[in-house]
């Protein structure tokens, strides 16, 4: 299933990753009002994306492709 | 008054010690070598004077001004170590600077233990910060010098000293609030272990923090808690404990004040893939925009959402360097199976509309066609194998009829809620 060439990377990935990681900046102040929020959680995450809707552009093109396959099979 | 000479600096510091003013003592001992530090720190201001003084002179001056000082004669030893360190630092001898600083650790911990009150906590934080930053600089200098006989082992050494600091703070005499110093030391140790790639050392500290007899977590300052949760969350990502990682990183993100944008962004960088694995939640476009992570995750999100295998492979190829650097490439790579599942699900849905009477029997050739359209060169045998894997791993419910070349899907929940790992 893999298209990306993994053989070289797989071994080195974990080491490289930790070494070159960006630092978590130290806080200048340690105390703050934790009640302040910027985005409500519901606005942050989409949970209902795995739906049965097939009307978006990708699905429309997929339908066209599948119709071609269908005709092929019918031949 | 600005003190630029050593005697004035020591006189002022003597008063700060006598008044047990932790903030002033901490400021005076701060070497100011961490990035973005205030160059107006007392120790920076006397830099030139330090360079001119001999080590013996500095030692004598410390004894003279602080030797009999309240609260403890240990203060003279601590300050002497810091000044000698700063002297080497200003002269550009970074490895020597670190070695000088180390001499101050034990006297400081003696002082920390003797003192009943919490004023010693801030100076302890400065000692810890000095040690770590000085050790990092020393190691860089040693590496840059390129002498193979000299090992860059100062940071590892600093880790050992920080463990002593942690133990001292964790078993304090006097005010139990002195223990509130512990979590920030743990965080400094995490930073060291992440840098040295000795992550197994983190486990012991996590066990101590998790123990019932340890300080109740909410008592620590917000910044310390957020930092701790960030690192523990990242460790859980490495261990592929996504539920745990989700808990820790969500805590860090939710408790990190919105004004700390860079930290929130970094937390989110790891939280996004974790959320997909743990909760099957995709980030909203607003979230990705707000934290400038669209370049990282938009294409991947789109691919997972639509089932676009082509887009997924393209995004993975394009973002490989980014993902490898962040240590999440293997994680992102695992999403491939989710994209295949989603594509098969959509093939099934469209096929069901085209041929309602055969809704659950999807010819494998449809999936071959869909994948080929997505730029994936494949054939019936390989596709049968892909679908068999999806079934075997529980992402799809059904069976393959090899003879008729169809996948027969379960009527009930043919595509169970995605569990990728």
UniProtKB/TrEMBL annotation, chain A:
GO BP, one annotated term: proteasome assembly
Pfam family, one: DSS1_SEM1
Main location: nucleus
Keywords: Nucleus, Proteasome
Family under the similarity heading: Belongs to the DSS1/SEM1 family.
Functional summary from the UniProt entry: Component of the 26S proteasome, a multiprotein complex involved in the ATP-dependent degradation of ubiquitinated proteins.
Name of this chain's protein: 26S proteasome complex subunit SEM1
TrEMBL record, chain B:
A single GO cellular-component term on record: transcription export complex 2
Protein's GO biological process: poly(A)+ mRNA export from nucleus; post-transcriptional tethering of RNA polymerase II gene DNA at nuclear periphery; transcription elongation by RNA polymerase II
Molecular-function annotations in GO: double-stranded DNA binding; RNA binding
Highest taxon, organism lineage: Eukaryota
Residues covered by the PCI domain: 226-414
Protein name as annotated: PCI domain-containing protein
Organism: Chloropicon primus
Taxonomic classification: Eukaryota, Viridiplantae, Chlorophyta, Chloropicophyceae, Chloropicales
